[in-house]
Amino acid sequence: MVPARNTRIPRLVRDYALAIAFWLSVSVLVAWQMYGFERLLSKPVVLHDLLLVYGARYLTVAILTPPIFYLVERWPVTGAVVRRTAGYALGYLPFSCAFAVIRWLLLPPWREETTSWGPRSLEMLFELLYGTFADVLLLYLSVVVAAHAYAYFVHGQRQEIERLELRQSLAQSELQALRAQLHPHFLFNTLQGISTLIETDRVTAQGMLRALAALLRTVLKHGSADLVPFREELDFLESYLNLEKMRLGKRLEVRWQIAPETHTAPIPQLLLQPLMENALVHGIASSLEGGWIEVEAAVRDGRLQVLIRNTVGGRSQPGLGVGIANARARLKYLYSDDASLDFRLERDGALAIISLTLPAFATVADEDSDEPARAARTSES
Question: Are 243 and 211 in contact (CB under 8 A)?
């Protein structure tokens, strides 16, 4: 109970401070306006007196404002519209009575006809009660309307936050489902390749199993992380391609053109592996002569760009459509419109282009130093 009380008190102080600051500011403007009006009528009035009169009036409204806001927060005019509207209409009566009493206690009543202070008597209290009912009604309505506007604003903000949290939770669930989809897909295709060698080349098949075990340990090491450094993704790709080389032999040639500044750039885990698998299955493995795969990565204008080119030859079995669709879905959930995946067939092969915006804190090398710093590797076997 103590923590709740400690939280409530600062809020009460804040609300009263805001109400008093707002209404006293209004009182100064009204007093200055009335002072000019009284001078036009040649009435003997002093600005100091008007500041006190309207200061007391609007300070009274400020005292009554937070309770109305709390009532509206608890019982807004939603759902039971007629009943609550009637309740707030009847609420004017206790508001006007409270206004008259508080105003009477703060300062003696002000006589407009004589522009002087009157006695603080019971008669003057009743005069305050029925003599200012129109002004007090307008003040009451303005507070109630403002309280409802604020309540609707806060309610809308809460709904928007809940909507964003729900959307984030759904996106996270989708990402986990997409990444979980990759593991059996990758494992199935690799084991299928190993099964073709068991009868013809057991030594190579055993080596592929050991390499596969090492790859799975690498995947498990990252746990549920969505993003990994690009360098680690490249290491995984290289290990995966070495695994495939055991099966394809000299039919597979891999070329690397990786700019050093890309090494620390974040990239979704296992984003490139399905694209590489597409290149292998539909490009190299389906051709008797084999072919090549080229991986190029660079940072341009604050974006990481990865290009995967491969030859296309022969006919391949139609895939399950997991690779490209999965990669595009993950980029959509993680980057929205700040990332893209383009895939197209060219004359000499196929090309996949991934482009994603890097965080503002990512280290980017100078554009002029890209070519000299580029680390190019060519691997043949």
Answer: yes
Token pair, residue 322, equals 């997991």
pLDDT single digits (tens) 143-189: 999 999 998 898 888 888 877 776 666 666 555 555 555 556 567 76
- For the record, the structure tokens of 281 come out as 């299955």
CA distances from 314 to 193, 285, 322 (A): 18, 9, 21
Between vectors from CA 297 to CA 365 and to CA 232, what angle results, nearest 5°? 90
Furthest CA-CA distance within the chain: 116
Average confidence score pLDDT of the chain: 79
Domain 173-380 superfamily per CATH: Histidine kinase-like ATPase, C-terminal domain (3.30.565.10)
- Using a 10 angstrom Cβ sphere, with 0-12 exposed, 13-18 middle and 19 or more buried, the burial of residue 210 is exposed
Asked if 189 and 277 touch (Cβ cutoff 8 Å), the reply is: yes
Contacts of 48 (CB under 8 A, 6+ apart): none
**186-222: per-residue pLDDT in tens?**
677 677 777 777 777 777 777 778 877 777 776 666 6
**DSSP conformational letter for 362:** S
Sequential DSSP letters for 111-166: ETTTTEE----HHHHHHHHHHSHHHHHHHHHHHHHHHHHHHHHHHHHHHHHHHHHH
Are the beta carbons of 142 and 233 closer than 8 angstroms?
Answer: no
Cβ(178)–Cβ(329) below 8 Å: yes
How far apart CA 283 and CA 373 sit, in angstroms, is 30
| Amino acid letter, 211 | A
CA dist 108 and 349 (Å) reads 93
> pTM here?
0.49
> What Cα–Cα distance (Å) separates residue 292 from each residue in 243, 286, 348?
15, 12, 11
57 Cβ neighbours under 8 A, 6+ residues apart: 27, 103
Domain boundaries, given as residue ranges, for the chain: 2-131, 173-380
| Closest by CA position to 343, among listed 333, 334, 353, 335 | 353
Number of H helices, E strands in the chain: 11, 10
